[in-house]
């Protein structure tokens, strides 16, 4: 899942292998990409403070990682944010008599994830 031409950019699913597979395939593919990211972190390819990612323990310090992301103003899409994205895509689809309209840009996804109300 590592994009060779761009530092710290990873993909999974169809972006990684083309339009093939099912949900189970995408889950496996995402797991593989996460393992690649973890490996890159352990190899020192990221500027991650030791307090967050111990090379022997890996990402078992979730609260410290979330604090670092907050400090760096990185939006974190948690389960509740994903549920808001899901609901917004379904509402957009209902207007067109479709099950959903998939959002395709980061901006659309983040707008839906962090909408109020």
Structural commentary:
It is globular, with a radius of gyration of 17 Å. It has five helices and no strands. The relative contact order is 0.08. Helices cover 50% and strands 0% of the residues. By secondary structure, it is an all-alpha fold.
The computed structural class is mainly alpha
Number of helices: 5
Q: Count of DSSP E strands?
A: 0
Strand content: under 5%
Q: Average pLDDT value? A: 81
Q: How are the SSEs placed, and which strands pair?
A:
Layout: H1 14-17, H2 23-42, H3 62-71, H4 79-94, H5 106-113
Q: What features would you highlight for this structure?
A:
0% strand; mainly alpha; 117 residues; single chain; 5 helices; globular
Short characterization:
This protein is mainly alpha-helical and 117 residues long. The chain is 50% helix and 0% strand.
